[in-house]
Amino acid sequence: MNKNSAGFTNIKTIVSVAFVAVCVAVFDVAFSALKEPPLTFPIDGRASGTFPSEWIHGSKSAMDNTDPAVQVHAYNDHTFILRENKAINYEGVFMYLFFGNGVAMLIDQGSTSSPALFPLREVVDKIIREWEEQHQQSDIELIVANSHLHGDHYAAWNQFVDRPNTIMVGLTHEEMMAFWGIDNYPQEIVTYDLGGRELVVTGTPGHQGSELAIYDGWTDLLYTGDMFYRGRLYLEDWDAWVASIRKLRRIADRNPVVHLVNNHIEMTAEPGIDYPIGTTWQPNEPPMQMTLEMLDQAVEATYEVNSPGIYIYDDFLIYNQIPWYTTTDL
Ligand SMILES: [Zn+2]
Q1: CA 206 to centroid of ligand 1, rounded, Å
Q2: What's the CA-to-centroid distance between 227 and ligand 1, angstroms?
Q3: What are the sequence ranges of the domains in the chain?
């Protein structure tokens, strides 16, 4: 009797366990059907994107400016370009927000500290919330990184220090390179996995001694920060810049770069003519993005320039070891 009873109980237990297992499996299948698959960022082919036909570019009277403090432009679903209002700070810097699975990276934090004047954290948090909703992700991590260590690119860094779920890369050369895993700056070229999105990162000093360039394999954008943009290229170390520009050309030889993107616009749409330094209104701006032909022009310049001075090219000016406050208007 006892034996039989025990045998009966065992069968009951086995049936129950089997039933629970089937339920779990069914639930799992149903649940995974509801859940979005992870985002993929293939490096073959290209995720296209668009630039605005013109950026918000300040106003005749900075006092009367009614534009948003930060212009937000979605280059594509997972790539945002932000610009600080020139009426708030004439630098009118561009900042970048790249998304991967479970993570976003903010590159640079503008030229103004005050959240009242320049609410960068609020703007970034809103983009992240909306992105999470759209892509069925939640509680993603934010990495606060920098292209280089000049104050017009990290002024609002302080707005993020108490943000939960945030990695602050840091504002020293050592912290920056440790984060990216660069042991041998500037020569080393590393790849960084941003939630499945592969970034190629390398040192590009010349304008500043901790600068980095980033090639995004998914969009084929090459980010050149302050060392190459449509404006006055202030170079503190000519030989370092020469090596950096030639290295960017080699990266572009090996990868199908589509646009070079960066941090400022200081040129007018007229070849070789820049806006006066400090201007808060640029009604005739050329596009921010640059071409490989312009990079070739910079490579040529590395063979032409041989002493300190100002050298004028159609799309950029080289200020080789010239104080930053010197302009071509004087
Ligand atoms: Zn700079």
Answers
A1: 10
A2: 8
A3: 62-171, 190-330
What is d(CA 174, CA 37) in angstroms, rounded to the nearest whole number? Answer: 37
Name residues with Cβ closer than 5 Å to ligand 1, which is an ion.
150, 226
pTM above 0.85, yes or no: yes
Question: What's the pLDDT tens digit per position in 132-173?
Answer: 999 999 999 999 999 999 999 999 999 999 999 999 999 999
**Measured in Å, how far apart are the chain's first and last C-alpha atoms?**
109
φ, ψ (nearest 5 deg) of residue 24: -60, -45
Q: Rounded to the nearest whole angstrom, what is the distance from the C-alpha of residue 17 to the centroid of ligand 1?
A: 65
Q: Cα dist. 329→255, 271, 274, 307, 326 in Å?
A: 38, 15, 9, 21, 8
> Greatest CA separation found in the chain?
109
Distance 300 CA to ligand 1 centre (A): 22
| CATH number assigned to the domain covering 62-171 | 3.60.15.10
Q: For residue 263, report the distance from its CA to the centre of ligand 1, in Å.
A: 9
CA atoms within 13 A on the CB side of 74: 8
